[in-house]
Amino acid sequence: MKVIKINKENWAGGLEKSKGSYRLFGPVKNNELHEFKQLDKEELPDCDYFNTRLSPKSIIYPQSETMFEFSLDENREDHHILKEIDTDYSPRAIIGIRPCDAAAFLLVKRNFSTPEYKDSYWLNAYETTTFIGLACGNPHDTCFCTTTGCGPFNEEGLDLLLVDAGDCYFAKTITSKGENFLRAAGWDAGTDVETVCEQIKTMKQEAEAKITSFVATDKLKDKKTTDLFDAPFWEETAFACINCGACTYACPTCWCFDIQDEVSGYSGIRIRNWDSCMYPLFTLHGSGHNPRSTNMQRVRQRFMHKLKYYPDRYGEGILCVGCGRCIRLCSVNIDIRRVCDLMNSYEVQVTSD
Amino acid sequence: MSERGAKIREISERLLKEGKIDMVIGFRKGTLPMMNEPCLVKSPEDVKNLVWDSNCGINLAKYLIGRKEKIGVVAKGCDSRNIVTHLIENKIKRDQLFIIGVPCEGMIDRRKIASMFEKEIKEVAEEKNKIIVRGSGFEKILEKSEVLQKNCAICIHRNPVIYDELAADIVKEQKNVDRYKDVRQIESMPPEEKRDYFNDLLSPCIRCYACRNACPLCYCPTCFVDESRPQWVGKGIDLTDIKTFHFLRAYHCAGRCTDCGACERACPLGIDVRAFTMKLEKDCFELYGWEAGMSKDERPPLDTYRPDDPNDFFK
Amino acid sequence: MGFSINNQQSTINNPKWEPKIVAFLCNWCSYGAADLAGISRLQYPPNIRVIRVPCTGRMSPKFILSAFMNGADGVWVSGCHPGDCHYLEGNYYARRKLSLFKGLMEHMGIESDRLHFSWISSAEGTKFAEMANKVTKAVRDAGPANYFAKKISILKTKVA
Amino acid sequence: MQNPYLPYPVRIDEITTETEDKNLKTFRLVFINPGDEEKFSYKSGQFAELSLAGKGEIPIGIASSPTEKGYVTFTVNKVGLVTSCLHSMKAGDIMGLRGPLGNSYPWDILEGKNIVIIGGGFAFTTLRSSIVYMLDPAHRSKFKDIHVIYGARSPGMLLYRDELSAWEARDDINMHITVDGTEDPNWKYNVGFVPTITEQKAPPGNADTYAIICGPPIMIKFTQPVLDKLGYCHDNIIMSLEMRMKCGIGICGRCNIGKEFVCKDGPVFTLARLNEMPKEY
Q1: What is the ipTM metric for this complex?
Q2: Reported pTM
Q3: Given a contact as 3+ CB pairs under 8 Å, which chains touch B?
């Protein structure tokens, strides 16, 4: 575990140098909202930002991704046969990603990389990407990462952690991919590890102390799924929801997708688009039956999946990193912190008969 | 503003106690600055949650569709016009409703205010027509009229057109307001510029359908977007599909849209989706002299015709 | 090898380019007028692909948008004169629907000479031929409308 | 890394119309690339995704039995976009097949047991696969007696009618075919709903008897109490569920009941396990 100091003069030069061997992505301000974008020549990431409006999952897992190509032209001998396409998996680096978003990729990886099936699209994109995190200096009121197993200085999912120390960045390498990036950027100004680690530790405590909102998740695991499912608070919680996909598309830990074919003339492609459990079409059967036809059932599915089904299935923490995007972007202010506390504190009223 | 909240609570409590209504649909305080959450109040004790301030931009008429109970609904000017549209389109019966009309003084644009400050906003309060914005280490007072939602700034029907009881006395309507300045500005562009304008406008769109789902006018069991035989619109983020979706969504609101701004308020990326509906509202007004939701007896423009309708571009 | 879209949708300076126009003709009048034009040997360009609709009242914006999305360069909707619609009021509703449609389409940047609307009764074979020539000429001047067509992003197939 | 979404190219070898209303056709598919068939080895109860280029994919239960080599058959009900296109295709057309997907019936547990197969309507495909598998000379001895209760709306709506009558003739399988109603005078089998026939004809439930149920929700809803009355414990009642699916491999996230994915942890569940899952299917 190496810690080096990058003084800010050769920050821009180092980034430019790294563009030689990485496609570099970073946060850029684009009329009122920050988004992750591939940085062109001379373009620098805007590192004193809070967080991007949408999560950086679209870099690894684009909203619309072509899976196969095919031709319907009968007089071609490979007509109607699906063919894989050439995708550019040359090395990429995401700089300035927040620790919560990086940790989210690990939670999502459990779904795309299962013992029986490996999703080649997602995994190829993920494994060829280096994650250079930027520790959070001043979290928002809607950030509750510390109580979801994450934190402003967390290192899970990161290959390199940068800590902004005013005139310089401390760079803490976490994996070999991080070291490769440092080498590519030409940053290797040695520094004495103890004092820097001490400084990072104090900055970490300061940042964690600034978190003002929390969720309680301790009792979720030993609650019965069917009890939570039949709880009375769902009706009232889901009333306001308009079933749009804003929360699921902004969320770094949401991964559901739809597969569609699109044809133009004789050529066609099979594409994978983001999908949302909020839409009725998500579970509509060919016979017209829909197991989740009402608004309440869909809202319940979203929260139950993140806070109960996923932890039960993988035996780990909740499927949420506390980034707060779904709270900030919900037009009717449905708040996952309120729902999580409701679920965590819910006790079945045992009717004394 | 808070007298309105108090009056709403008082009316709701009385109605619930008298059993005239089974529930009240209103707003409760949000967990974020400048945000309120639509809520359902069924018992007189919970009436204390009901609030009213300048952050009630979501249109509550959306929550009436398909309900059978007797409902007390809080409705500002545009909401009440949408309720009239619901009545015309038989989506709800008038005797089901007890409409608590709220003469409106305009809703503030939370994204506009947030973009005026670098640091995070912790709290937003309002007195008379001043908005006090407080954050860590700063406090600023803004003129409410400068930070109104775009539709509220040009609104000419602030008072409810239909109500059973008012939560405040009638407010003065805004006079000599040019509602179609933005529309004319786009209309004056040559076609290429218009195309670029709408391509840039819609490029951030992530097809989350918040604009469609926040709108009280959109209640089709199967939206044209979900039709598969034939499939009119692709499901991906191809710009042609996005433009087709927004075109048809707006077109379905022609002659029905009351410009309540809920679509723009709901868009997570702050896209000015009213650019489509305002053009249709201007055409409906100039071609057929129609304003949506103003009277229960007149048929909406696309549901009727006149032999002497404008006919010039038909050769 | 990639798959190329096989219609010649290319730039203006491609002389071989022929405009593709989708004509929605109402079954009772304009479709009849097209027959009459044919029978009386009136010449009009072959760029028109006719789609018969029961009445202009049946016209939906989805049809026109779908035509443009699939590569049409122009759309022409023609029906009975107001007053003698077979279904009495179909074209009255259509007049309002298509007026608002044309307004919003032009608002979004489509040139006005890509969208044509006309009333042609089944006796007006000559008017149909004239209109066909006029529409084709207008769309030819406007050039290919490939900004509205939906292009499938074809990539190089992976060499196994 | 192998792409789990790439279907095997197959050719439609033969299409037979199964029901009088022509809404159900059986498609016999043959693998185009040699070696794909071995990769596609499956067990009765599994399903596969039929892929039509330009239209999409549909999850359909495999109707052929693993003992029938050289082809794979699917019986498809004409319901939506892909199925209608499939019904308009002809022998020789090219399409794709992805799978085998899902878990199969628990053949290891079912060995040495009595099997009661209860099917309704067109959900008889994987049951046919199971019957053919069990009746295969190599496997018949592994199972004690087999009962089949299969019903449809009318005689013309029964699937695999010739095979049904062939099995009727055998002595090592008790067939109870029924129809909801018929005017056909020489209809020689039962008349009545599946639950009522089950009550009359099904053997009593005990530790050695397993029931496999497949059919529309309404049939399952009324058959389950009958099985309870007959003494079947919920561990011995095996059900195969239907859900909207896209990936079929437990990744796209839509076919869940609670934390289980119907496409990967199912579609076959015992009733006991279903009772612990939220009632959302």
Answers
A1: 0.94
A2: 0.95
A3: A, C, D
